[in-house]
Amino acid sequence: MILVCGLPGSGKSFFASRLAKRLKADYISSDRVRIALLATGRYSFEEKLRIYRHMAERAATLVKRGKDVVVDATFYHHSMRELFIDVALQNQCAVRLIVIVASEALVKERLSRPRIDSEADLGVYQTMKAQFEKFTQPHLRLQSETDNIEQMLAAAVDYLTGTNGKR
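Request: output the structure for the sequence above.
Response:
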């Protein structure tokens, strides 16, 4: 199980969907789950946890079937991460965290354009940035730029296969 984490506009969904394809893994997107559950526009902490719980249940079903899964969400709060870490432990499944970051200028540019699945705008980004808790778990941190997706994917595959030991 691979958790792809980061603020809105960081490029995490772009990265996560391509990583899932490269790994031939199933892909779970918080934005898509929110749409499927008819929960757009609802962002209380409890509503967010409901989305994450639903995603964790889907991830558990997939790992029980022996599938690899890439989960794409902000994971800004430790309780959201712990849901998935618990699922992994209960299913004796390895869990890896990848944090995607981008410069604020690039985030502003990305969030100024319409996006298919996400409602997040610059205000949401700023709120989430203020609430984002540091990661205490080992993780790979990748810097998203306008043209480095292939380098990011290569670094992630190296990290996941243990060939570079970067954390």
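The chain has seven helices and five strands.
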